[in-house]
């Protein structure tokens, strides 16, 4: 079926009224949250980006671009009647909205936990399948939650430290974007550093390291006046991510927009953040550039965690990353600014750290 349907066996625990209103007329356009006029037409809807590169952008999609992957995931993960699905984010977030609509469409019991404190989420969680970002899962673990069930992780790369903390669950990491939906999916045998292989129905092509995808799950375009950052080329889409493919597995370097030039070499902060996040004493990390007269830029690690580990963290970075990529200094933070999606608010963090 091409449009969203409220399956007769589906149940919702949480903000049911919001979803009931959105799905009151099958195929009618809707958007939950966001600014500007509601979308118009049949079989389309809007969702929002995470806002990691600025204000959240409005994404216009056909309902079929999601229902096609609903059918795939029903087979892959057993989502359907009698399954219990939990989403940790607010429904204005693309990932949370996807998980909720998929569960309702397939007849599952859907647990909406967005807006709750992590400790209350941890106590309330009773699901077979959880849709979450690494940032949301980290808060759950810090609140004392013991991981279990199937966790579908998206939004950013899962670091080694958090992966260890989630060892009690079955992890299925996927890479995607609000504009592209699923791009890759990591099975149990996927190398941990990768984000898996192409999701069913997806074609991936690298052009000078830039990731381009073609699939039935792509968005139609940005809504409103914002031109957005994704680019089209004859049915192929790129959101500006850089990566490589080895033995059929995709490895991410980072966003072209975050790339930093250090001594005439291109460096991706996301790669460095992934390494540091797995070190002892690190709760959260962001790697940001600082202007340098000699090298153009150098890198600084902004960290929340155990200050006593600073020397060990810097030494590990030099040994593993080399002098060029290793951060030159650490700035410690007690608080941590985040976006509504749970991702780090890099703009605010840079401004507050004077970078």
Characteristic terms for this protein:
three-stranded antiparallel beta sheet, 22 strands
Task: Note down, in words, how this protein is organized.
- There is one protein chain.
- With 355 residues, this protein is α/β, with parallel strands linked by helices.
- It is globular and about 60 Å long.
- It has helices at residues 16-22, 64-77, 94-106, 118-124, 134-142, 160-165, 269-277, 310-325, 346-352; strands at 11-13, 44-48, 58-62, 84-87, 109-112, 129-132, 150-153, 170-177, 181-185, 197-198, 203-207, 210-214, 221-222, 231-233, 236-238, 241-246, 249-255, 260-262, 265-267, 282-292, 296-305, 329-332.
- The chain is built from nine helices and 22 strands.
- Helix 5 links the parallel strand 6 and strand 7 (150-153).
- It has an eight-stranded mixed β-sheet with strand order 1-5-4-6-7-8-9-10. Strands 2-3-13 form a three-stranded antiparallel β-sheet. Strands 20-21-22 form a three-stranded mixed β-sheet, sandwiched between helices.
SSE blueprint and pairings:
Elements: E1 11-13, H1 16-22, E2 44-48, E3 58-62, H2 64-77, E4 84-87, H3 94-106, E5 109-112, H4 118-124, E6 129-132, H5 134-142, E7 150-153, H6 160-165, E8 170-177, E9 181-185, E10 197-198, E11 203-207, E12 210-214, E13 221-222, E14 231-233, E15 236-238, E16 241-246, E17 249-255, E18 260-262, E19 265-267, H7 269-277, E20 282-292, E21 296-305, H8 310-325, E22 329-332, H9 346-352
Parallel strand pairs: 1-5, 4-5, 4-6, 6-7, 7-8, 21-22
Antiparallel strand pairs: 2-3, 3-13, 8-9, 9-10, 11-12, 14-15, 16-17, 18-19, 20-21
């Amino acid at each position: 079926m091409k449009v969203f349907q409220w399956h007769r066996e589906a149940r919702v625990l949480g903000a049911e009224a919001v979803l009931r209103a959105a799905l009151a007329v099958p195929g009618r356009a809707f958007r939950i949250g966001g600014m500007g006029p509601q979308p118009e037409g049949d079989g389309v809807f809007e969702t929002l980006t995470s806002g990691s590169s600025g204000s959240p952008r409005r994404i216009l999609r056909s309902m079929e671009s999601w229902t096609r992957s609903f059918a795939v995931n029903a087979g892959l993960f057993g989502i359907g009647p009698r399954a219990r699905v939990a989403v940790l984010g607010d429904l204005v977030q693309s990932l949370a909205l996807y998980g909720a609509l998929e569960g309702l469409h397939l007849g599952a019991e859907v647990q909406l936990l967005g807006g709750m404190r992590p400790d209350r989420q941890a106590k309330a969680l009773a699901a077979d399948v959880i849709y979450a970002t690494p940032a949301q899962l980290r808060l759950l673990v810090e609140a004392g939650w013991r991981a279990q069930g199937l966790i579908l992780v998206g939004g950013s790369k899962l670091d080694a430290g958090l992966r260890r903390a989630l060892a009690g669950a079955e992890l299925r990491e996927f890479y995607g974007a609000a504009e592209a939906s699923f791009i890759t999916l990591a099975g149990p045998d996927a190398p941990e550093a990768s984000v898996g292989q192409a999701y069913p129905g997806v074609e991936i092509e690298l052009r000078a390291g830039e990731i381009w995808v073609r699939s039935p799950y792509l968005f139609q375009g940005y809504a409103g006046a914002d031109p957005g950052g994704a680019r089209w080329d004859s049915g192929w889409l790129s959101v500006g991510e850089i990566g490589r493919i080895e033995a059929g597995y995709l490895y991410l370097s980072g966003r072209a927009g975050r790339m930093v030039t250090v001594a005439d070499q291109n460096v991706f902060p996301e790669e460095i953040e992934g390494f540091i996040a797995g070190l002892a004493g690190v709760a959260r990390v962001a790697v940001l550039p600082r202007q340098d007269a000699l090298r153009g830029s150098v890198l600084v690690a902004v960290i929340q965690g155990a200050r006593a580990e600073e020397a060990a963290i810097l030494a590990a970075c030099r040994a593993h990353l080399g002098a060029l990529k290793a951060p030159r200094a650490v700035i410690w933070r007690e608080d941590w600014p985040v976006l509504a999606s749970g991702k780090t608010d890099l703009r605010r963090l840079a401004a507050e750290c004077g970078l």
